[in-house]
C-alpha cells in the first residue's frame, strides 16, 4: 500500500535560556494508507513533540522544527502556513489525546460539540447534522445515541468521553488519526475496549492510525509495525511480532519486561533503572548507556547508528552479531 505520511530527518528543538534543546533529533518513519503504526517510548522521549510537529500544534516559541520534512501525500507540511494546517486538521489529519486532557467543553452538551465539529467541514441542515451525530455515536459504540446528545461531558464515564472524542475526530473522515496515549488514563478493561474500537474503525474506514504510547502491551494489541523512540531518536523499528520475539535494543527489551501482566502474581512491575536523559544533556556515545545492562566501553564514546532493513536497531551489540 501507499505511504500517506512520511517523516524524514525531523528535528524539533526548544529554544530556552540554556540554548537549543533538541527534543526530536532526526527521526524517520512512514505510515502507509490504512495501517496502524505504534510509536512507543517513555515520556520525555519525543513522542508527543513528534505528533505536535506533524499537526502544526507545536507551542512556538519556544518549539521549532529546525530540520527535515513532514510529507503528507508528498506535500512537505513541516513549515506550512497556519491556514493550510487548519485545513489539514479539519479534513485529513485528526488527533485525540489522553482522556482527562481531551477538550470536551464542560458547558456544552455532547450534541452541541459533535454537531459543531461536523458543521466545520460539512454544511448540512440541522436535521441532517443531528442524524450524522447519531450515526457517529453509534459508529464509536455508544448506544442510546439520541439521549446522549443531550447530556453533558460530566454525565459520561471516562471511556464514554474518549469514545465521543474519537467520534469528533472521525467526523471529518480523516486519512490519518494520531492518538497520543488515548487509553493511558483508563482502566485496563476500558482500555482494551477503546483499542478494539480503534482497530474496528481502522478496518471499516481505512483511516491510518499513529498510536503513541509508553506501553508496548498496547501496541501489541493493535499494531503491526512499531517505532521505538528513546531520547529523541528512533532506536528500534520493525514488525511488532519480530520485535517481541527478537528485541534488538536493550531499551525495547526493558519496555517488553515492563508490560503490566494481568495474570502475574508479581507485586511490583519491572522498571528500567534510571530515567530518560534531558534532551541534549548527553554529549557523546550511546544515549542509553547510563541505563543499559549491556554497556561496553565504546558505548560511552561512540554513538551507534540505526541499522537494518525491515527490522532496524541502534545498538552495537546487535550490529556486531549481524
Ligand atoms: Fe547498550 Fe551499548 Fe547498545 Fe547503547 S550501544 S544500547 S549502551 S549495548
Ligand atoms: Mg507524551
- Note the total helix count: 11
CATH topology of the largest domain: Rossmann fold
Number of domains: 2
Largest sheet: 7 strands, mixed
Helix content: 25-40%
β-strand number: 11
CATH class of the largest domain: Alpha Beta
Which strand order do you get reading across the main beta sheet? 6-7-8-3-9-10-11
How far the N terminus sits from the C terminus, by CA atoms, comes to 29 Å
Name its key features.
322 residues; alpha/beta; Rossmann fold; 2 domains; 7-stranded mixed β-sheet; 11 helices; globular; binds iron/sulfur cluster; binds magnesium ion; Oligopep_ABC_C; AAA+_ATPase; nucleotide-binding
What does this structure look like?
Its main location: membrane. It is found in: Cell membrane. This is ABC transporter ATP-binding protein. Belongs to the ABC transporter superfamily. Keywords: ATP-binding, Cell membrane, Membrane, Nucleotide-binding, Transport. The mean pLDDT is 93. The chain is 33% helix and 23% strand. The chain is globular. It folds into two domains: 3-92 and 174-321, P-loop containing nucleotide triphosphate hydrolases (Rossmann fold), CATH 3.40.50; 104-171. A hairpin with a 2-residue loop joins strand 4 and strand 5 (75-76). It has helices at 47-55, 82-91, 110-121, 126-139, 145-148, 158-170, 188-205, 216-222, 240-245, 250-257, 316-321; strands at 3-16, 19-32, 36-40, 63-72, 75-76, 93-96, 176-180, 208-213, 225-230, 233-239, 312-313. The protein contains eleven helices and eleven strands. The chain has a seven-stranded mixed sheet with strand order 6-7-8-3-9-10-11, with helices on both faces. It is of the alpha/beta class and 322 residues long. Bound molecules: iron/sulfur cluster (SF4) and magnesium ion. Magnesium ion is lined by residues 43, 47-48, 180-181.
